[in-house]
Amino acid sequence: MPISLIALALGGFGIGLTEFVIMGLLPEVAADFAVTPAVAGWLISGYALSVVVGALGLTAAVNRFSRKRVLVALMVLFIVGNLLSAIAPTYGIMLSGRIIAALCHGAFFGIGAVVAASLVPENKKAGAIAIMFTGLTAANVLGVPFGTLFGQAFGWRSTFWAITAIGVVALLGLVFLLPAMAPPRAGTASLRQELRAFRSPQVWLSIAVTVLGFGGMFGAFTYIAFTLTEVAGFAASMVPWLLVVFGVGLFAGNVLGGKLADRNLDASLLAFLGALTLVLVFFALTAANPIATVVSLILMGGFGFGVVPGLQMRVMRYANGATTLASGANIAAFNLGNALGAGAGGSLIASGLGYTAPIWAGAAAALVAFLVMALAAAGARRRAAASALPTDRGQHEESRSEVAARA
């Protein structure tokens, strides 16, 4: 494993903390700013929508510069946003800090995925992307639950001060561990060149699967603190430890998803999406049972995040060589799904349908994602067969010519 992948994982760890730790602290933040849970949820969905903007806008704007310098600059932006969140006197300023930090998120993972894939052989690219996302999953296994516990003990602001410090460590890792990278060659980094990726129907189908699949999981997970306390009956002090359970599932799913995607990309994605649909249905039916809830958290994390390296690799595979903006667009799709899932979940809760309603909506979204993925896989098989047919026919005709010549 190239040591430079560790630098990318460090950056992913810091960004993962910022994105997910707010979920465990949402009740405390809502109470501090005197806002409803649905309004507090905008600290999650607003972040996710800003990731979409950064993933597309920033990635397109910085594509001509050295990727190392871009990643370092994005980490500085991340530090500034979290510092503002830590000192925010009002909900509006807190949301502004979240938006600033989010702008770096999509571009960082989009560009980082391209860098990670470029550091390893062809048959290990999805695994390399998974290693970068290991930082994101580690943030859930360790950072999010302990950040939540830290915030509950010393105030939620202390968590954002800690994340700011972690951002500084990640910045140093990028500076000293990531190899120097020359800017892209002239003529290869233009926006027109990058936009050619979106001529591929497979890219659009993959992005649709990302929005639906990730939206399904995070629609269920956004208000998980309320589900755990109000439905399953867990004490608030148990929430950080239950998030550890979810994080273990994320970590395992990410590693396994990368390995299986390198073996059979489309089959692995179909398996994970189908399993995620079934798990969410099970969770919705058994959310009042504490034991079943723990099992559901592990499986939801595993199957939900198991699609991440595969979907990222799939978009890059069908991007017609224009991988950077396509990679960023898929990161945007992950967070668009996050925002839509969080928004839909908040609306369902506000409508009085209860804290299991977002889980049911997540199951429906995951099912549609499975169906779209099946359509994409069938199209990819037809394309591969059509590409091979002329070659096979040519070889057959050549063999007939050789037989006739010998005769």
Automatic annotation (TrEMBL):
Superkingdom of origin organism: Bacteria
Record key words, sorted: Cell membrane, Membrane, Transmembrane, Transmembrane helix
GO MF annotation list: transmembrane transporter activity
Transmembrane segments: 34-58, 70-93, 99-120, 127-148, 160-182, 203-226, 232-253, 265-285, 291-311, 332-353, 359-380
Entry-linked PROSITE patterns: MFS
Region (Disordered): 388-407
Domain Major facilitator superfamily (MFS) profile, residue spans: 4-381
Entry keyword annotation includes Cell membrane: yes
Cell location: Cell membrane
One GO CC term, this protein: plasma membrane
The UniProt record lists the keyword Transmembrane helix: yes
Topology within the bilayer: Multi-pass membrane protein
Biased composition (Basic and acidic residues): 393-407
SUPFAM superfamilies the UniProt entry points to: MFS general substrate transporter
Chief location bin: membrane
Protein name in the entry: MFS transporter
Organism expressing this protein natively: Cryobacterium flavum
